[in-house]
């Protein structure tokens, strides 16, 4: 009986050059798209980030990619022959290629434009050891939809960045709001029965409202500043903005907005409550971003790669705090929905 579900199979594919005439090129991505995509750790040992190209010709497979350096983006190429590739696998549009290297095996992960393009790439790879899963699991499909949201963020922030950076001659007292359509998707609530869910359940209505207000207000502001940084960062990488202009902008324009946000946040201390738990995550976002901007500006001016890497680590830490704050907000929204249903039932 035929099955309509995902199928995994091994198959022998034609060596490169036999599947078609002439060179064939495919657009791929080594890291996801989005305003902070360049800061994601590359899932390959060569440091390839962002978008790239696979070119199949009589030599084998040429990978054209970009790596991130202190001076911006550096373009690089690497040619792979059949003897270089141990095996390859595909799940939907995602491709995993295992390489043979002197120092041990290396793995390159990339994403094609769609599942059909990925399947075509698999037929051209110069290896006979392939595994394919025709349909990505539900979680993978959900992740592949995220770039659309990220590009909405970039489009909204680019207009904002261009207007503010060019004409503004003084600090902005409060960060601009992000349109509702461009806000990051609300994460799924934390698993029921967790410590987070318990804290939300046991909080008084007044405490829950205070925590909710802080998470909405400061979370929205942090999202706006994060998007603005991402747009400026893309301008730095693509060339319109110099390193000095970027570093100066971080210090004179973006960092002051984070300082204003920190002053507006309720001071730490006092009894532990749901609001203090929420503010702790928000304060982590703000403090990590402040330190990251300071280190990044200093690292660019001193050409210190280690300092820049520390800045990236702090930005990833801030993203972790943001994720936990959003999860807490999702729990509060779930509590509100549960309360509304109970009231309607009575």
SSE layout and pairings?
Layout: E1 8-11, E2 24-29, E3 48-57, E4 60-69, E5 72-80, E6 85-91, E7 94-99, E8 106-112, H1 115-124, E9 130-133, H2 138-144, H3 146-167, H4 195-202, H5 205-238, H6 243-264, H7 274-302, H8 305-345
Parallel strand pairs: 6-9
Antiparallel strand pairs: 1-9, 2-3, 2-8, 3-4, 4-5, 6-7, 7-8
How would you characterize this protein structure?
- It is built from eight helices and nine strands.
- The chain is α+β, with helices and mostly antiparallel strands and 346 residues long.
- It is globular and about 70 Å long.
- 31% of the residues are buried.
Task: Please sum up the structure shown.
Residues 5-20 and 136-193 have low confidence and may be disordered. The protein has helices at residues 115-124, 138-144, 146-167, 195-202, 205-238, 243-264, 274-302, 305-345, and strands at 8-11, 24-29, 48-57, 60-69, 72-80, 85-91, 94-99, 106-112, 130-133. It has 346 residues and is an alpha+beta fold.
């Amino acid at each position: 009986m035929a099955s309509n579900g995902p199928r995994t199979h091994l198959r022998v594919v034609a060596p490169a050059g036999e599947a078609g005439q002439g060179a064939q090129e495919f657009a791929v991505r080594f890291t996801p798209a989005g305003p902070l995509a360049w800061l994601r750790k590359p899932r390959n040992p060569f440091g390839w980030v962002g978008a790239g190209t696979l070119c199949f010709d009589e030599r084998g497979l040429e990978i054209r990619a970009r790596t991130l350096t202190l001076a911006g983006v550096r373009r690089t190429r690497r040619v792979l022959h059949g003897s270089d590739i141990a095996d390859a696998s595909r799940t939907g549009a995602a491709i995993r290629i295992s390489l043979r290297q002197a120092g041990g095996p290396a793995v390159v992960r990339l994403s094609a434009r769609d599942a059909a393009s990925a399947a075509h790439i698999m037929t051209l790879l110069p290896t006979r050891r392939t595994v394919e899963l025709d349909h990505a699991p539900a979680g993978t499909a959900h992740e592949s939809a995220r770039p659309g949201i990220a590009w909405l963020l970039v489009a909204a922030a680019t207009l904002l960045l261009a207007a503010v950076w060019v004409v503004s001659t003084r600090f902005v007292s409060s960060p601009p709001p992000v349109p509702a359509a461009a806000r990051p998707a609300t994460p799924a609530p934390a698993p029921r029965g967790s410590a987070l869910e318990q804290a939300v359940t046991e909080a008084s209505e007044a405490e829950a409202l205070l925590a909710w207000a802080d998470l909405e207000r400061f979370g929205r502001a942090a999202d706006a500043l994060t998007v603005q940084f991402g747009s400026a960062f893309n301008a730095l990488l693509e060339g319109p903005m110099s390193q000095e202009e970027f570093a100066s902008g971080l210090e004179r324009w973006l960092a002051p907005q984070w300082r204003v946000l920190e002053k507006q946040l309720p001071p730490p201390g006092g009894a532990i409550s749901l609001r203090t738990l929420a503010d702790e995550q928000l304060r982590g976002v703000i403090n990590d971003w402040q330190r990251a901007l300071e280190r990044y500006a200093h690292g660019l001016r001193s050409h210190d790669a280690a300092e820049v890497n520390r800045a990236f680590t702090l930005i990833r830490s801030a993203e972790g705090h943001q994720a936990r704050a959003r999860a807490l907000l999702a729990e509060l929204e779930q509590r509100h929905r549960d309360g509304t249903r109970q009231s309607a039932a009575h």
